[in-house]
Design a protein that fits this description.
The complex is a heterodimer of chains A (257) and B (358). Chain A is of the alpha/beta class. Chain A has 2 domains: 167 residues, P-loop containing nucleotide triphosphate hydrolases (Rossmann fold, 3-Layer(aba) Sandwich), CATH 3.40.50; 78 residues, no CATH class. Chain A contains 10 helices and 10 strands. The longest helix of chain A has 21 residues. The radius of gyration of chain A is 19 Å and the shape is globular. The longest helix of chain B is centred in the middle third of the chain and has 27 residues. The chains are: A alpha/beta (257), B mainly alpha (358).
């Protein structure tokens, strides 16, 4: 594996009963790029994310991250390797505060033992303060200060979306999977999201794979785009190349076969 | 809502949220320590029972209120703890070994039931734990040469450093110390990564998993911890009743424990204590007014369970946050008086997911 590839998927496929949700998908993601996956509804975009975060077991194919095969890694180990994700329909912890949500994102960096936690030894307290500092950096990065102690259940949708991004950043990922970061956001919030994705790439140096429908956002931030339909790759290239690809246009708006 | 003025990261993980709490809880503790000196045996005994149920309530609260796993089998853990205590004491082991052993054995029983039910939640988990409860109940009845069967098992008096800890006062102080220990443990859990992992599992399993939380491990820990705490309550319960009978640990007791956490208020330690107070005081309250009620009502069989059921239903309908929720609202009302906002505790319902416990 060459050094210029952070994450690669080879011949990935999964079947749900008779339905081939994803079939023969291969792609490589280079370090420091924003790689977008587009496609009509049901094309298998989120399924690929669920395969990468190991919620589903692939029927065929291998996943490699940073030179390691992660096809057999259990799902709770993925975050520790440096792959974080967000969800299409926000999966935050609604009855906890924003700060607690971010601290849960620090979980994979927690190394204190069970019994020292039961007694709350000074080592646990020190680790907690350290986690808190890291969470505070993310709060500052995303400008979430005024919601710090609010319950998620009381926050508006747009803020929750940002909190979910923050929680993923708290795991200190090297690869960030964003599942429709702009869904449910208004025009201004989508624009803000574009700036954050750009900052995440340029300032934090995190590689991003993004599933997105909003083509404006896709062309604004992506280095490369992959178009899917019925679980197969239609086109891959820069945003302009993919958008002008006749196969892609046909998949979206129909046309002569 | 009260927003403390925070200037240090350490403030979030302090044992006392507000500095003033130290004094109020200190006063309460002094008052509780002094009660046996001034009060009659009856009240001391009743309070000891309350403490024991509060311990079990905290145990179930960690499982149901914080991890979101329902258990209708916690009477079994109480029973395992009580019988372990009685059997080990009768074999001549010292009290300072038997009580921790009761908690430990019950903790292992909790792990044993936790592992096969890992993939269950909600109603299915409730049924599985219900089955576990009745299995343990049957074992306690039938395993006669160990548990004494229906004849029951007398509990020997505990000795600690040559002092006989018997009678209402001994049980009272043991239970008080046990309750303080358990509250300290629970507060430690809740301010460390462990407690956050529990809450994460309760609120969203899929994202808890992708944040690196091992669901199987943490659910098992939650079951074990909850069972161990309930087992400690069981060990103390053995000394409280002084003669164990298997039919004391039936489904009704499990439902009483569930009532403690629901009526007290899910997801708060105060709720477990309030719930235990409710649970222990209501029968006494009914007994007090029973004679003054008209005959057809006061002599009605099943008056007590009916009132329990009615309150549980009313509580779920009108105050899902339980007694603790009501208490917080009353506190906020007086704190903000006269600027009280009726909507201060209203939550957005639009993203509520009905299949989850809240």
């Amino acid at each position: 594996m060459s050094a210029s590839v952070l994450f690669s998927v080879t011949d990935l496929g999964i079947r749900f009963g008779g339905i081939r949700a994803v079939e023969g998908v291969s792609f490589e993601v280079r370090p420091g790029e924003v790689f977008s996956i587009i496609g009509p509804n049901g094309a298998g975009k989120t399924t690929i994310f669920n395969l990468i975060s190991r919620i589903y077991n692939p029927s065929t194919g291998r996943l490699h991250f940073d030179g390691k095969d992660i096809t057999e890694t259990p799902p709770h180990m993925i975050a520790g390797l440096g792959i974080a994700r967000t969800f299409q329909n926000i999966e935050l912890f609604p009855n906890a505060t924003l700060l607690q949500n971010l601290l849960i994102g620090r979980h994979c960096h927690s190394k204190v033992g069970l019994f020292s936690q039961l007694a709350f030894l000074p080592s646990v307290a020190r680790a907690e303060v350290e986690h808190r500092k890291r969470a505070e950096e993310v709060i500052a990065f995303l400008g979430l200060q005024r919601h710090r102690d609010s319950l998620i259940a009381n926050l508006p949708y747009g803020v929750r979306k940002v909190v979910e991004l923050g929680r993923a950043l708290c795991t200190e990922p090297r690869l960030l999977l964003l599942d429709e970061p702009s869904s449910g956001l208004n025009v201004e919030e989508t624009e803000e999201m574009a700036y954050w994705i750009d900052d995440i790439k340029k300032d934090l140096g995190i590689t991003v794979i993004m599933v997105e429908h909003d083509m404006k956002l896709v062309s604004a931030v992506s280095d490369r785009v992959m178009a899917l339909n019925y679980g197969r790759i239609l086109a891959m290239g820069t945003s302009a190349e993919v958008q002008s690809d006749p196969e892609v246009i046909r998949a979206y708006i129909g046309g002569e076969p | 809502m009260r927003r403390p003025f925070k200037t240090l990261y350490e403030q979030d993980i302090r044992f006392w949220r507000q500095p003033s709490a130290r004094w109020w809880y200190g006063l309460l503790l002094i008052a509780l320590c002094a009660i046996p000196l001034v009060s009659g045996e009856f009240y001391v005994g009743e309070l000891a029972g309350l403490f024991i149920f509060a311990i079990a309530g905290v145990g179930l609260m960690l499982l149901t209120g914080y991890t979101g796993l329902v258990s209708l089998g916690h009477s079994a853990f109480l029973g395992i703890g009580a019988y372990t205590e009685a059997i080990l004491l009768s074999r001549g082991l010292p009290f300072y070994v038997t009580l921790p052993a009761a908690a430990l054995v019950t903790g292992f029983a909790g792990v044993a039931i936790g592992i096969p039910t890992l993939r269950m939640s909600g109603l299915y988990l409730a049924i599985a734990t219900l089955a576990f409860g009745s299995i343990v109940g049957t074992v306690l009845q039938k395993w006669e040469h160990v548990t004494g069967g229906f004849d029951g098992l007398p509990v020997k008096s505990p000795f600690l450093f040559g002092i006989k800890l018997d009678g209402p006062n001994g049980v009272y102080y043991m239970s008080l110390i046990g309750l303080l220990l358990v509250i300290w443990l629970a507060l430690n859990v809740l301010r460390s990564p462990l407690g956050r992992a529990f809450v994460a599992i309760r609120d969203s399993e899929v994202s808890a998993q992708s944040m690196g939380i091992n669901l199987a491990l943490y659910k098992t820990i939650s079951f074990g911890l909850s069972a161990a705490i309930t087992g400690l309550a069981g060990g103390l319960f053995a000394h409280y009743v002084r003669h164990l009978a298997p039919d004391a640990f039936d489904v009704l007791l499990s439902i009483q424990l569930v009532t403690i956490v629901f009526v007290g208020g899910l997801g708060s330690l105060h709720g477990a204590i309030f719930g235990a107070m409710f649970m222990r005081l209501l029968p006494q309250g009914i007994a007090l007014v029973r004679d003054d009620l008209p005959n057809w009502l006061g002599r009605m069989p099943g008056l007590e369970p009916s009132i329990f059921g009615l309150i549980l239903v009313l509580c779920i309908m009108y105050e899902p946050m339980g007694i603790n929720g009501r208490w917080m609202k009353v506190k906020a009302y007086f704190k903000n008086f006269p600027m009280h906002k009726a909507s201060a505790f209203r939550r957005q319902k639009s993203y509520a997911k009905s299949e989850r416990l809240r």
